[in-house]
Every structure is written in C-alpha cells, then in structure tokens.
Amino acid sequence: MFIVTAKEMYDIDHCTMQKIGFGKLLMENAGREVARKISQRARVTDKLLVVVGPGNNGGDGFVVARTLLNEQFDVKVLQAVPDEKLSEQVQFYKNLYHACGGEYVAFDGDGAWKKAIAEADIVVDALLGIGIKGAVRKGLDAVVTCINERAKKVLAVDIPSGLPADEGLTDFTAVKADETIIIAAPKISTFLPHTAGYYGKWEVVSIGHPAKLFAKSATRFIADSNYFQRTMPKRNLDAHKGSHGKGLVIGGSDHMPGSFAMTLRAALRAGAGLITAASTEKVIDGIANLTPEAMYQTIASNDGWLTTGDLPLDGKDAVAIGIGMGRHADTAKLLQKAVNASACPLIIDGDGLYHLQNNLHLLKQRKHPTILTPHMGEMARLLQVDISELAIKPFHYAKVFAEKYNVYIVLKGRFTIITAPDGRQAVNTTGNQGLAKGGSGDVLTGIVLSMVMQPQSIFQALCNACFVHGMSADLQIASGHTYYDLLATDVIEGIAGVYRHFLDPKNS
C-alpha cells in the first residue's frame, strides 16, 4: 500500500480521470465505497448528517448521502458553502442527490445547523479535502469547531477537514475524527506524531486507480503482512548454519550487560545461523548461560568499558555495535574502528549513535551498507535539530540524512520509518504501546542483524525486521499480555509466533 503526498494524489487522480478515462466515475466510486463502509457501521435508525464543502470531498459527500438515502438510511446534507462556490462536478452530484429526494439542513445564522450536528448520531465529514495548506477560512472554521464540540461520532471522508495531507505544517484547525475512510492511499499526515491522532481508526478503500500510477509516482509504502509474506526468504531443506549468516554483536559493559544479552537472543531467535558476542570478560561470564547458542570473544576493557583491541571482524556477514556500550572515550574509539574496518553491513544502535554524532564523516567513506536505528531523540541529535522540528517532518529529515551519508535509517516511533540511501521509504505500522519500555530497541537491533544476513535486499530486511518486532508485540498482547506487563524478553519469545502465523511452517 503506497503512501502519497497531496500533489502525488492529485496527479494520480488527474491521470486516472483524464488519461485513463474514468472522468466522473472516480468520484462516484469514492462516494459509493465510503457509503458502503458507513453502512457497515451505522444502524438504519441512526440519524446521519453529511457535511459537504466546495471541492472534491464535497462531491464525495453528495455521493455518500445519495447512496445511503437509496439504502433507506435517515440522512441529510449540510452544505457549508453557497451554490456558486461548488465546482461543476460537485454541483452535478448535488443535483443527483436532490433529484433522488435528498433533504438539506440550512447553513444560516440561526444556529439550526449547529443543532443538526449535535443531534446526529453520525456526522460524516466531507467538508474539506487534501488541498488545504493553512488555516481553515472564516466561516468553515466555525463548522470544524462545532463538529469537534458537539458531534457524537465523526467519520471523516479521506482526511479530517482542516488537516494538512503533507508534513511540515503545524498551524491548523482540524476535525478530530473517530474514524476515517481514506480514499485510495494514506497521506503522509496519517503517520506523523502531531497529526495521526486526528484520523482516529482508519482504513483505506480502493476506487479504481490503476496500480501502476502509484508505483510510478510514490516512493513510500506500508510494509505490511503481505509484503512480509512476499519478500521473507524461505529456508532450503539443505540449509546449514552458515547459510543464514555469521553475525557479530559488539557492545555491553560491566555496567550495562542486559541490553547486550537481549540483542544476542533476539538475533538467534529471529533466525541467524551463528552469532558471536564480543564484550568484556565480566559481561560474557554473566550472560553466557542465558544464551548458550552464541559464541563469545572477550575484548579488552578499561574499568568495565570496552577499549580498542582486536575485533573479530573476519568472515562476518553483518555486525551490530553500540548496544549497552556506554559513552566512554574508549568506546568512541571502538566505534570508529568498527566503522572503518568492517567489510560487511554494519548496524549502529544505542551508544554507538551517540558517538557517531562527532564522526559522521566516516559514514561517507564506507563501501559497505550502514544501518542506523535511532529513536527521535537520537535522530535529532545526529541532525542537530530540535525533536519538535524532526517530529513534524520525519520523512523529509530521514530522507535528507540517508541520501547525504549513504546510509539506511530505521527511525523508530509509533510509526517506524525505514529509509534507503536512494530515498525509498517504508512505514511499519505494527507494534503497540507495550513496546515503550527499555530493551525494546535492543531486541529490534538483534532482529535487524539476523534479517540483513538472509538472502534479501537490505531494504527488504529492514522492513521485515520492523514488521516481525512490532507484530510479535501485537500477538503477545492478543494472547494474554497487557500494555503494562509486556517486556522486551516477551517480544523475543513472540518471534516464533509471527513466523508460525504468517509463514508456511514447512518453509519457515
């Protein structure tokens, strides 16, 4: 499923209507699909009020109202603009609604329209579409405010009115929907921290756009279960431990051994063939019995912190560094050495990202893939911007950084954004608030390490790793855990359930 900007959606609409030849049929399809979804949610005894505006969303609204009317629902239309403001196409669909006997609520100064909003069981928001880029104009802003203050339940058509479709905008007044029926493809604002909540629950309906237009226009998509099932490599009957990667994890300290242990166990549980753990002698003594499947190599340490000794990099298919490593001066040198010397994919997480902020120039010199897995705070530090600025433009900033330093970015959050050096981006929507605990990121790093060593592209590996990590948490919640008690170690144990549920057990 592709994710689009407002311009991309406009271009796809235009090509579908004009070049492909759908014409008015596209708006008819949109309204009918939204009406079908509403009919699944509403009772025939419910009072429905469809609020329409001047643009294409208003046209969709008239089709919704007419379709529901013809299915015997109690529906009325509140037209929030005069007729002369309606486009020709919207006026066409208004005439059809009127000819079918549709009723209206007058939009005037006596406040009857406010009462109609308050009395409706469901308000269908078809006031404004994806074209808005600033504040809602005077008059319509009163409608948005009234819907937010008085409506019992709000179902938005395509996008909540007043909400920007794109990133980077914070000055807006928008409808807060309980549910949104998104038409054709999610817009970027569906996945931004400051705008996602306005959508409520959402789902996407297809209305006939040719798939090739999205593939041509959009560079972002949702890495969902279909993508995972299509791209996750199958295991051969004659496979051996070397077939599935020889990985190395560098990290840990005498002061923080736990996160290191979780990364090791997650990598093995996710399917890595061989994992070597390189850490201090004390860390290895403490965790070896927890993960006996791993191999261990001691690195020189100073007061419990790793120092720049020999690293067992030869023959490794991927390396992860930074987990529980600490922010000591010696560990900064260790990171530099790993960046310079590793001749395979390198995953940098945790304290490795802290040290990286002063060594970004090293990334451009690497000839092998580099993967960074920051959360918002770590990414903001790398970019030297405020977290608040990053949060309103995460797609933009991740893409700029990935292209500049030739790295892959896994920007962790409610909706994790995966970005490739060539600018491709994917969003992972699995996972839940139970992951908001220490250790969750360490588990993800282990899964990433395992995935990048399997026969798939780095980008596919990152998408699949994020899917498995989040889906494990989702399945654990569904099977008895709660958002309160879920632990990172539970997520590790849940990996097997993801594979069983989504992959053919004979091949996985």
Automatic annotation (TrEMBL):
<dbReference type="InterPro" id="IPR017953">
    <property type="entry name" value="Carbohydrate_kinase_pred_CS"/>
</dbReference>
<keyword id="KW-0547">Nucleotide-binding</keyword>
<dbReference type="InterPro" id="IPR004443">
    <property type="entry name" value="YjeF_N_dom"/>
</dbReference>
<keyword id="KW-0413">Isomerase</keyword>
<comment type="similarity">
    <text>In the C-terminal section; belongs to the NnrD/CARKD family.</text>
</comment>
<feature type="binding site">
    <location>
        <position position="441"/>
    </location>
    <ligand>
        <name>AMP</name>
    </ligand>
</feature>
<keyword id="KW-0479">Metal-binding</keyword>
<feature type="binding site">
    <location>
        <position position="375"/>
    </location>
    <ligand>
        <name>(6S)-NADPHX</name>
    </ligand>
</feature>
<feature type="binding site">
    <location>
        <position position="324"/>
    </location>
    <ligand>
        <name>(6S)-NADPHX</name>
    </ligand>
</feature>
<keyword id="KW-0511">Multifunctional enzyme</keyword>
<dbReference type="InterPro" id="IPR030677">
    <property type="entry name" value="Nnr"/>
</dbReference>
<keyword id="KW-0630">Potassium</keyword>
<feature type="binding site">
    <location>
        <position position="161"/>
    </location>
    <ligand>
        <name>K(+)</name>
    </ligand>
</feature>
<feature type="binding site">
    <location>
        <begin position="56"/>
        <end position="60"/>
    </location>
    <ligand>
        <name>(6S)-NADPHX</name>
    </ligand>
</feature>
<dbReference type="InterPro" id="IPR000631">
    <property type="entry name" value="CARKD"/>
</dbReference>
<keyword id="KW-0521">NADP</keyword>
<keyword id="KW-0456">Lyase</keyword>
<comment type="function">
    <text>Catalyzes the epimerization of the S- and R-forms of NAD(P)HX, a damaged form of NAD(P)H that is a result of enzymatic or heat-dependent hydration. This is a prerequisite for the S-specific NAD(P)H-hydrate dehydratase to allow the repair of both epimers of NAD(P)HX.</text>
</comment>
<protein>
    <recommendedName>
        <fullName>Bifunctional NAD(P)H-hydrate repair enzyme</fullName>
        <ecNumber>4.2.1.136</ecNumber>
        <ecNumber>5.1.99.6</ecNumber>
    </recommendedName>
</protein>
<keyword id="KW-0067">ATP-binding</keyword>
<feature type="binding site">
    <location>
        <position position="125"/>
    </location>
    <ligand>
        <name>K(+)</name>
    </ligand>
</feature>
<feature type="domain" description="YjeF C-terminal">
    <location>
        <begin position="224"/>
        <end position="502"/>
    </location>
</feature>
<comment type="function">
    <text>Bifunctional enzyme that catalyzes the epimerization of the S- and R-forms of NAD(P)HX and the dehydration of the S-form of NAD(P)HX at the expense of ADP, which is converted to AMP. This allows the repair of both epimers of NAD(P)HX, a damaged form of NAD(P)H that is a result of enzymatic or heat-dependent hydration.</text>
</comment>
<feature type="binding site">
    <location>
        <position position="57"/>
    </location>
    <ligand>
        <name>K(+)</name>
    </ligand>
</feature>
<feature type="domain" description="YjeF N-terminal">
    <location>
        <begin position="9"/>
        <end position="215"/>
    </location>
</feature>
<dbReference type="Pfam" id="PF03853">
    <property type="entry name" value="YjeF_N"/>
</dbReference>
<feature type="binding site">
    <location>
        <begin position="412"/>
        <end position="416"/>
    </location>
    <ligand>
        <name>AMP</name>
    </ligand>
</feature>
<dbReference type="InterPro" id="IPR036652">
    <property type="entry name" value="YjeF_N_dom_sf"/>
</dbReference>
<feature type="binding site">
    <location>
        <position position="158"/>
    </location>
    <ligand>
        <name>(6S)-NADPHX</name>
    </ligand>
</feature>
<dbReference type="InterPro" id="IPR029056">
    <property type="entry name" value="Ribokinase-like"/>
</dbReference>
<feature type="binding site">
    <location>
        <position position="442"/>
    </location>
    <ligand>
        <name>(6S)-NADPHX</name>
    </ligand>
</feature>
<comment type="subunit">
    <text>Homotetramer.</text>
</comment>
<feature type="binding site">
    <location>
        <begin position="129"/>
        <end position="135"/>
    </location>
    <ligand>
        <name>(6S)-NADPHX</name>
    </ligand>
</feature>
<keyword id="KW-0520">NAD</keyword>
<dbReference type="Pfam" id="PF01256">
    <property type="entry name" value="Carb_kinase"/>
</dbReference>
<comment type="similarity">
    <text>Belongs to the NnrD/CARKD family.</text>
</comment>
